[in-house]
Each structure stands twice: as C-alpha cells, then as structure tokens.
Amino acid sequence: MKIVVTVKLVPDTTADKRIDPATKRLVRTGETVLNPFDEYAIEAALQLKEKLGAETTVTVVTMAPERGKEVVRKALAMGADDALMLSDPGCEGSDVMGTAYALAGAIAKNGFDLVVCGTQSTDAITGELPGALAEFLGVPGLTYGRKFEIDGTTLRAERETDSGFLKVTTGLPAVVSVTKSINEPRYPSFKGIMAAKTKPTTTLSLADLGIEASAVGLGAAATVVVDSAERPARGEHAVVKDEGDGGKRIADFLVSRKLL
Amino acid sequence: MTARVTGASEFDYFLDDEHEALRSTVEEFARDAVAPRAAAMDASGEFPYDLVASMSKMGLFGLPFPEEYGGMGGDYFALCLAIEELARVDSSVAITLEAAVSLGAMPVFRFGTDEQRKEWLPQLTTGEAIGAFGLTEPDGGTDAGATRTRAVLDAGTWRIDGTKAFITNAGTTLTRLITVTAVTGAGEGGRKEISSVLVPVPSPGLSVATPYSKVGWHASDTREVSLAGVVVPEANLLGERGRGFANFLSILDEGRIAIAALAVGLAQGCVDESVKYASQRQAFGAAIGTYQAIQFKIADMAVRAHTARLAYHDAAARMLAGKPFKKQAAMAKLYASEIAVTNAREATQIHGGYGFMNEAPVARFWRDSKVLEIGEGTSEVQRMLIARELGLPGT
Description:
The complex is a heterodimer of chains A (260) and B (395). Chain A is an alpha/beta fold and 260 residues long.
C-alpha cells in the first residue's frame, strides 16, 4: 500500500508572524519548521505502516523552496521512506487551490492508495487543502479525522464535528486529514536521524509534472489579499469577579454576545 | 516583539547535520514535554518514568554505543548535546540520562567481557533498564584509600559487604545493575587493591534506602546502597582485578565532559529565563531589560555560557579524535560548573523576589547548580588534575 503524507514548511510557531505591507504576503525569511499539524499526519501514516507491514511505504510530499529539505528530513527521520519535493520558482505565491493542484500532480505521478494530511497549516490556517486535494485527485476526501482504520480497500473514519463525530466509510484510494486528537507524534530517534541521510528525496519541477506555469503561482491565485492591518489593541472588556456565580455571569455575557 | 532566545544553535558551525538534527529534536522535546513538568517534578521529587520512557524511544540512552549492543551508533558528543538541551530546562532529567549512560552503561562497555556486554548492554542502551555506579561511601569519595566496602572471593563467588553513598539511579524500578568498587585485597606497598564488581538488582543482601532529601536535583533518584553479604559469581568482576578505581577514574574523565554539558545547559537556561523575564517585567515605566544594569548582567551570563560551551565542545572533539583530553575535560567541567552557579545566582537576582520562589525556574536552577561543583569530581579535584597536567612540582 502506498501512503502519501503532505507536509509544509511554516514560519517558526514560537515567533511573531509578519505580513509584508508591499506584497501583502507572509514574510517567510525567518526560521522555518515542519508544520506541527503535519506531524500528526506523519505519525498516523507511520502507525498504519507498522500495522500493515513492510509492503507499505510512506512518502512525504511538499511544495517548498530548496531550504524545505530541512522539513523533509525531519519527516524522514521520524520514519517516512522517501520524499518528493516540488521545488519550482513558478510555485511561489500559490494560493491553496494552486498548491493543491500542484501537489495533486506530484501525488498522482507518484501513485497512492491513501493521502494523509494535517488539518491545516499554522501560517495560512485555511484548512482547505485536504478537500481541494481530494477534488483534484478525483477521490473521496474525509477531513477532520480523529480516528481511521483500513480494512482491505475500505477506509473507516471518525470525523470530528462541532457537536460530536461522524462515522464514515469509503473505498480507497482516498484523502484523509487528521486532527490533533488522533495520536501523539513521535520524536525522531538518533537512528532515524542518521537513516534519514540516506533516504531518497526526489526534487521535481512543474515541467516534470507537466503543469503549466499559468496554473499555479501568484498569477493563478483565485484569492487576492486586498489589505492587511495590525491586530487592533484590545478594546472594551469586562472583568467578572467570582462571587459564587462567576460561571453563570460569564455564560450570560457570552450568550448576550451570541457567542454561546 | 517576542524576545528570541537562542541556545546551542549559535554554535552550530561546529555541528554536522545529524548532530544539529539531534540537538533540535531534544530541544523540542525538552521545551514541549519536560519544561511544563519541571516545577511539579521539583516539588514532588517523583522520578519521571514517562519522560524516561520517551527518552528511551528517542534512543538517548544508547547514543554513544554501537548498534550491535542496542545502541544508536552515535558518539559521546551527541550524548553531550542531548544532556545540554535537557539541562536547559531541567537538571534532574539531564543527570538521570548522564548517570545512566556514563556511569551505568559505559563502564560495562569499556571494561566488560563479551559476555558481560551481551548480558547488560542491550537492556541498558535501550533504556529498558538503568544501571548505577557505586564508588562514593559515607566516609570517603575522592579518597580511594578510604574505601571500606570489601569483596571477598571464595569458592567461585564474591561476597560483598559495605555501604555506598549518594548513588544516582540506585533505586528506580528500572534499576537492574549497580556496579560497586570494593577492596579485594592488598596491593603493592600496602595500598588497598580495589576492583569493580557487577551487582544485579535485586540481589539478596542488597538494599537501597529511601531517597535523600537533597537541595536540588529533586526528581533524580539518589540513594544510599547497603550490601550485607551480597553474593555474586566470580565472573561479575568488571575489568581487571585491582584496576577498579583506576578504571573508574578514566570513566570520570569523559563523564566530566558530559557534566560540563549539563552545566552549560543550566547556564544557558538562566540566560533564556532572564531574557524572557527582563523583556516582560516592568519597573519605572519600562521593561527592566531596557536598563543597562540588567542588560550587562545578562550579556555576561551569555558570554559565560558560550565560553563554557566552547570548552566542552573542544574537550569532546579531542576525545573523539583520540587525542589527550584529560586536562581539557577537567577545565570544561571546572569552568562550566562554576559559571553555572554564577549564572544561576545572577538569574535569581534579576528575577528579584520571584526568583526566590521555588516554582520559578531560576530558583530551581540555583538549587540545582551547586552540586555541579561537587559531583563527579569536585572543583578542587579538577584544579588538582589541571595542576598535575601542567606538570607542577608536588603533583
């Protein structure tokens, strides 16, 4: 079975994020890390591989500039078998649709039975990529999975919703995205770190995938950032002093603002 | 803007990709898994079995050992980097790893027979079991001649009697081995002949006391060990008979580099915490970090941590290159442990009253720092060694 995990390079989650006022795009020059949500996807894929046996392979795929190799290496150190890196200046500025389109090209070329994604990235936070990817790959997409299992070519998953969860079933191939409640991602072992050195990473260009430059990148983005502004300072607020009824008063306040 | 704290990465020109990947992995583990627990562990004194299990899975207990013995095939420098990153947030966890590797498993690896290595190393290098080393006694540490524990060979078995003090990792539920030094006869010139013997845990006659109430290192397991007629096979002699003390001293030479790494971690943790606090704490209408009195203190702390790091990296590099490193290891341990105490004192000062509260990380660092000038060779012993290496008369 071929499992593909999508991963993304994101700005260090402990650093402040900044938007360049001229380009309206996120400044990505600082320290970068593996998107924390993707670690759950990698872990889910590795656990599946451990269960299904050696016939199963886990390939990580990413769209990133050359320095994205760091991120790929961490995924390999955790235990993924190989990596595909779509590294092409033409991808720069892609929105979520362009990214999904390009990744779908890379995943289709590689071949897959199951694609596992994190729910979202910590930079753009759209959470739309898994759905878009399923659409472009023409397979079912089960998002927000808190649990899933494979039985032959049947995929059973529990999808988290605001009020509970849905039990859903589909056939493979498919795309799933997993939430943070699915597992506890492993830390790479030193042996894994050493092994990552010799695992293959294939760098692909848009041309390798037969994708025209006009289909991706900033020019092809369906969404446009019109404006950005600093988060305003915190305005009016109320302090609820607990005199035995604090919980009720907070609830009443939230209800009055239609937040509950 | 959030203050950015950088630690060992400032020095990464010296680290290859694998060492840097290991360092950043342990940094992440320390920050996300250990740091949030450190204050509670310090308060309860409970040995963190779950963290030790995580560290086992990461392969930290096997870092410097070959794969054939269950190790990770890394080197001693990798171990030091891991210890430094752990100690940046918690010394108890760091010393648990340091002692388990350098004192528990390393003597078996260095001096064990094939059989001894095969029996003990696979469990010790995977962290499935922990080993301890008993050298110090209630009435003698540095002074080998004061060793009172005796091991008598009779009909193919050693019968051991004595008491060992301040033994790290002696009483965890994972402890399976305590290697002890004991007088096994009279050597040349009436000197005591001292040998090392492997004592499996449990063994009849072997008992460990309740944990000591220590000033620091609260979540590290430290106990007194009593041996009353403990009998082990003759084959449990570790290394050559009569070389027990000398062998242990050579183990300590490299152990000093690891303790230096631990001290550097603590010293860096003091910098991390002080930068954070000085950026937030307001006084006289501005963050205290805007005042030079505080800036200079923190700058000096960072310089000390950095230079101590250079010293231990140098000692480790020499050791791995097969060059003499005894003097450099002693220098690194001496300097790093003393600046750790200084940094902890200054960090506590910067935190004011809050720094004197036990739950403040710097208060814990302050209490944890002092033992660094004592354990695995006191500062005085390091100076003696350095003086001897310099060829001074009377040494």
